[in-house]
Amino acid sequence: MAILILGLILFLGTHSIRIVADDWRATQRARHGEAAWKGVYALASLLGFGLLIWGYGLARQEPLVLWQPPVFTRHLSALLTLPAFVLLAAAYVPRNRIKAALHHPMLLGTKLWALAHLLANGTLADVILFGGFLLWAALAFRAARQRDRAAGAVYPAGTLSGTLATVGVGFAAWAVFALWLHGVLIGVRPFG
After folding, report:
1. Contact yes or no for 98/105 (Cβ under 8 A)
2. Any residues with CB less than 8 A from the CB of 116 and at least 6 apart, and which?
3. Crossing angle (nearest 10°) for helices 105-120 and 72-90
4. How far apart are alpha carbons 192 and 183 in whole angstroms?
5. Which of 79, 139, 162, 174 lies in disulfide reach of 85, CB 3.0 to 4.6 Å?
6. Can you give the pTM of this predicted structure?
7. Torsion angle of alpha carbons 125, 129, 134, 138, nearest 10°?
């Protein structure tokens, strides 16, 4: 469990710098240069992500079960991740109405993904992993909205074609992951 927690702290800690120390981040980027900052950031993130995956895998070998979720929550989780994937796509597909309305759809998608997995899993490792991501995404969303208000950020209006493309990309990515990749990478088939 210690490796999972260390990975979570390193990964989410790296991604929390803008939440807790945005001015320090700007100073470091200016001092060391954009490329150096991004390199260190990417390295710390990858190391944290690797530890997180390794630690979660180890924790799953000897799970500490806190509760046994009802079977229907697995199906609910699989379905809730569909809009989470659409929200993730909305962060990247240009000129979509979802991003125009929500401003930070990736963080909202992360919250939905984490909540869905908390509903379907009842081990301590799941609570730590998915609860950690849910808490982080909520704090990051709040901080991002505060930065937007302070900067007077305006998001471009979305188009119907951009929105349809977003939904299509999100649905396709969800289908590939839910029906195939989740089983291959995680060892759990959401619909199997």
Report:
1. yes
2. 76, 77, 78, 80, 81, 84
3. 170
4. 9
5. 174
6. 0.91
7. 130
Alpha-carbon separation of residue 39 from 16, 20, 34 (angstroms): 17, 20, 9
Q: How is residue 161 written in tokens?
A: 């074609």
Q: Encode pLDDT of 66-91 as tens digits.
A: 999 998 998 899 899 999 999 999 99
96 φ/ψ sector (left φ>0, alpha ψ -120 to 50, else beta): beta
